[in-house]
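Dear colleagues,

As part of the handover before I leave the project, I'm documenting each prediction I ran so the next person doesn't have to rerun anything. This entry is a single chain, and its sequence is reproduced below.
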Amino acid sequence: VKFIDHLVNWYIRMNRRRLKGDAVADQEDWFSALHTLVKVQYQLILVMASFTPFFTEYVFQRLKCKLDFTENLKEPNQLGIDKSTGAPESLHYITCQEPHTNQIHEDIEETVAWMQATVELGRSIRTKKDLPLKAPLREAVVIHPETRVHKEI
């Protein structure tokens, strides 16, 4: 549930204009933002497939036309694979993948966590003081005993 919260409140909310194509100067950046969202949704339904099979199959059938499965065309005579696109006919024909541990950057995750905590604290202070969330602040002061955190934020 926390993952979905982060996806909606951080990626989608912070990139809303970019995902719509409003704030994008070039099409490649817009396509990249949308492709990232589709890939995350695809990974999410793979994880959810075992306990919500019908819902995830429904979502997969609508997402698969936006994903590249041409790698599957390299091995001929695979069962359950569309011969023209390489897409599996069903989500449930896809085997679980091994995690890509080389793509995990804990230092970036920690920096983003500090930034998110700072923004959430700012939001809670705005709510307590009845300040509108969209009005810009002249200044925000972050107090933390570690100087490393100040540099990261």
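The chain has six helices and no strands. The chain has a mean pLDDT of 85.

All the best with the project,
I.
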